[in-house]
Amino acid sequence: xxxxxxxxxxxxxxxxxxxxxxxxxxxxxxxxxxxxxxxxxxxxxxxxxxxxxxxxxxxxxxxxxxxxxxxxxxxxxxxxxxxxxxxxxxxxxxxxxxxxxxxxxxxxxxxxxxxxxxxxxxxxxxxxxxxxxxxxxxxxxxxxxxxxxx
Length: 150
Known about the structure:
It is a single chain. By secondary structure, the chain is α+β, with helices and mostly antiparallel strands. The chain contains four helices and nine strands; from the N terminus they run ααααβββββββββ. The chain has one domain: SoxY domain (Immunoglobulin-like, Sandwich). Strands 1, 3, 5, 6, 8 and 9 form a six-stranded mixed sheet that branches. The chain has a three-stranded antiparallel sheet with strand order 2-4-7, with no helix packed on it. It is globular and about 60 Å long. The N and C termini lie far apart (52 Å). The mean pLDDT is 85.
């Protein structure tokens, strides 16, 4: 099938209009905790992320180095033995924006995250996991010798 560039753009425009009008795209953005993302202090960001829910200890394995020579690339590994994990979030309590990232999971997937984050200075890395409506956390200190955030 030979399709012109103009016809292809028209098809893409129709698909985009359909996605917007059907509510597919707004639903994808519905659960974004902007209150946590916009905060510059740790405790208000944490409250914006979890609300008034209590953080439980245990079930979270957080692996970070004790000393990070470069704060721009701090390796982080998070895993859990919990089932039905909805998401895993990472926070750095001394960063200019404490909430670093969130990873969403399907109920049947293996909840494991391996990534690199930026830390401005020596601080705690906090991993928060939401599973079956409950929140679990683990915290670990990382000494940064050269900061990664400006």
